[in-house]
Amino acid sequence: MKIFLLGYMGSGKSTVGKLLAERLKHRFVDLDQYIEDQEDEKISSLFQKKGEIYFRKKERAALDELLEMEEALVISLGGGTPCYGDNLQVIQNSAENTTVYLKYSIPILLERLWKEKEHRPVISHLEDREKLEEFIRKHLFERGFYYNQSNLILSCDEQSPEQICAA
Ligand code: S3P
């Protein structure tokens, strides 16, 4: 059994994933971290040096590797992972896999991402709050098409990681 956590950047997928994995006694894998370990490079410098297409290829290859593993895992995906190619389809092809969308409202995402956008290559170029908000709004609208196909959608505003895990 594999549980995949989906959601926009800043949704706390890794925090919740770690906690959930502990509770279920599954191994936890953060897809971004898995790629960073393989490439021995931070995602932000991969984007910078080799570009987004290279990153998306690595992301898909890493996803395929995890899907091949027999063991039970909790996996936090990157914010863009379910939205490229047939990534979401290959995850959802197996009834053994469960996808969970950690859903947050735009004001909360904006608050969190404004404070920590520097190491996020997709938004680091946006220099003011209004531009970031506009970007998140459009991006979330596009990506929501994929996120909303999850098996479970959790509204996470005002919820602690512990409460989200218990849901
Ligand atoms: C991305 C989100 C990041 C990381 C990469 C691209 C995206 O992961 O995979 O920077 O396209 O939304 P987080 O959602 O963990 O920040």
From TrEMBL:
<keyword id="KW-0067">ATP-binding</keyword>
<dbReference type="GO" id="GO:0009073">
    <property type="term" value="P:aromatic amino acid family biosynthetic process"/>
</dbReference>
<feature type="binding site">
    <location>
        <position position="120"/>
    </location>
    <ligand>
        <name>ATP</name>
    </ligand>
</feature>
<dbReference type="GO" id="GO:0004765">
    <property type="term" value="F:shikimate kinase activity"/>
</dbReference>
<keyword id="KW-0963">Cytoplasm</keyword>
<keyword id="KW-0547">Nucleotide-binding</keyword>
<dbReference type="InterPro" id="IPR000623">
    <property type="entry name" value="Shikimate_kinase/TSH1"/>
</dbReference>
<feature type="binding site">
    <location>
        <position position="79"/>
    </location>
    <ligand>
        <name>substrate</name>
    </ligand>
</feature>
<feature type="binding site">
    <location>
        <position position="143"/>
    </location>
    <ligand>
        <name>substrate</name>
    </ligand>
</feature>
<keyword id="KW-0808">Transferase</keyword>
<comment type="similarity">
    <text>Belongs to the shikimate kinase family.</text>
</comment>
<comment type="pathway">
    <text>Metabolic intermediate biosynthesis; chorismate biosynthesis; chorismate from D-erythrose 4-phosphate and phosphoenolpyruvate: step 5/7.</text>
</comment>
<dbReference type="Pfam" id="PF01202">
    <property type="entry name" value="SKI"/>
</dbReference>
<dbReference type="InterPro" id="IPR027417">
    <property type="entry name" value="P-loop_NTPase"/>
</dbReference>
<dbReference type="GO" id="GO:0008652">
    <property type="term" value="P:amino acid biosynthetic process"/>
</dbReference>
<feature type="binding site">
    <location>
        <position position="32"/>
    </location>
    <ligand>
        <name>substrate</name>
    </ligand>
</feature>
<dbReference type="GO" id="GO:0009423">
    <property type="term" value="P:chorismate biosynthetic process"/>
</dbReference>
<protein>
    <recommendedName>
        <fullName>Shikimate kinase</fullName>
        <ecNumber>2.7.1.71</ecNumber>
    </recommendedName>
</protein>
<feature type="binding site">
    <location>
        <position position="56"/>
    </location>
    <ligand>
        <name>substrate</name>
    </ligand>
</feature>
<keyword id="KW-0479">Metal-binding</keyword>
<comment type="subunit">
    <text>Monomer.</text>
</comment>
<keyword id="KW-0057">Aromatic amino acid biosynthesis</keyword>
<dbReference type="GO" id="GO:0005524">
    <property type="term" value="F:ATP binding"/>
</dbReference>
<feature type="binding site">
    <location>
        <begin position="10"/>
        <end position="15"/>
    </location>
    <ligand>
        <name>ATP</name>
    </ligand>
</feature>
<feature type="binding site">
    <location>
        <position position="14"/>
    </location>
    <ligand>
        <name>Mg(2+)</name>
    </ligand>
</feature>
<dbReference type="GO" id="GO:0000287">
    <property type="term" value="F:magnesium ion binding"/>
</dbReference>
<keyword id="KW-0418">Kinase</keyword>
<comment type="function">
    <text>Catalyzes the specific phosphorylation of the 3-hydroxyl group of shikimic acid using ATP as a cosubstrate.</text>
</comment>
<dbReference type="GO" id="GO:0005829">
    <property type="term" value="C:cytosol"/>
</dbReference>
<feature type="binding site">
    <location>
        <position position="159"/>
    </location>
    <ligand>
        <name>ATP</name>
    </ligand>
</feature>
<keyword id="KW-0460">Magnesium</keyword>
<keyword id="KW-0028">Amino-acid biosynthesis</keyword>
<dbReference type="InterPro" id="IPR031322">
    <property type="entry name" value="Shikimate/glucono_kinase"/>
</dbReference>
